[in-house]
Amino acid sequence: MKPNYLAARIHHGVSLIALGRLQEAKARLAKALKVAPRDAGTMCLIGQIARMEGRFAEAESIYQRALKINPKMPNAWAGLASTRKMTASDAAWLASAQTIADSGIDPLEEAVLRFAMGKYCDDVSDFAQAFENYQRANQLAKSVAAPYDRDERSRFVGDMIRVYSPAAVSTVRQGTSDSTKPVFVVGMPRSGTSLVEQIIASHPAAKGAGELGFIDDAMITPGSELRRGLLGESTKKHFADAYLRSLEARAGDALRIVDKNPVNSDYLGAIYSTFPNARIIYMQRDPIDTCLSSYFQYFSPAMNFTMDLSDLAHYCREHQRLMAHWRAVLPPGSILDVPYSELVADQEAWTRKILNFLGLEWDQRCLDFHLTERHVVTASTWQVRQKIYTGSVARWRNYERFIGPLLSLSD
After folding, report:
1. Could you report the per-residue pLDDT of 189-202, keeping only the tens digit for each?
2. 181/59 same-domain check
3. What range does the domain containing 203 cover?
4. 256-259, strands of its sheet edge to edge
5. 363 within some domain
6. Domain with 332 in it: what CATH number?
7. Is position 118 within any domain?
8. Domain tally for the chain?
9. Residues sharing a CB contact under 8 Å with residue 291, sequence separation 6 or more, in sequence order
10. For 139-190, how does the pLDDT look when each residue is reduced to its tens digit (9 = 90+)?
11. How far apart are CA 278 and CA 275, in angstroms?
């Protein structure tokens, strides 16, 4: 196979992973690896798929194989840290990662490695060193991302509040679709949306579709009607039909299908006016914990507000302003607020509330969500396969002396 054909096959595999089509991605990458069995980059991608599917021991073994071929490969070293909780016995991992990070590698490769080093230090409770690595990682990521535009974000929120005024929303008598299939789980990034999706997807009548980008893509296209006024009937009909096809392509004919993209928080007015019978679940988590968890996660450049603590604080305040508006203008009962701290403290009580809100009968499998076999493409792929735990509540206090810009969020 010619080198450019091999590269094309690998790039196609990467695209399929991003779309959540992991079986197709595995097949594509397996063919690439058959042609180039010592391609460490392809091995890392296969390890990433194993991790997304919850096969963590297998993923760790694959990353180790990649390192035997390329002992200084940043993505493989970072991948190892993502497969389990690290301990002090992994000190050799940190030493190797440090050497590679300090060797003048590509900024984004260093960023990936620094995020992993931050995780290691957090796992072993070395919080000062963890924050130093996370801070460096975000500085590197920010250097290649477009600047976060605070004024534009505030204008967008203002436009949503203006367009979807109480008077305007009161005119929405019927949506374009009467479907009860969509379930929108929304909130700030890292607020527990993946956990709730996993709980719901463990019910035999429900499926999780992951983070669909469909709505965000539809709403931000040039010339979008979204910021000028209520969506027209023809626009809503096209949107509803295309969205339902997208849902069914991901999850078949399940009674309820979860779209857990946090950014859908921005579009609840348009969602309600199109799908008035859809269920909306909003995850409430301590805003400082939520923002800090975002700061500790490597996101795409599109998530540029996560790379700076002051930007995160601004984004969070604007998010809170918009959510307060949606609660005020949407009909009572449209949104179920699920407090993360209460969910992890009393899992069964809140699981029952969630299922009741969705019109689903009780099923014990929802309590054993960590046993549900499904791929998770989001940053929470490891967490949702653990039993419920409370260790992420008030986690920010370990970092209180470092996170000045976030502390005002507790007011």
Report:
1. 999 998 999 899 99
2. no
3. 154-391
4. 206-208, 256-259, 182-186, 279-284, 335-339
5. yes
6. 3.40.50.300
7. no
8. 2
9. 188, 309, 312, 313, 316, 406, 409
10. 999 999 999 999 999 999 999 999 999 998 888 766 678 999 999 999 999 9
11. 5
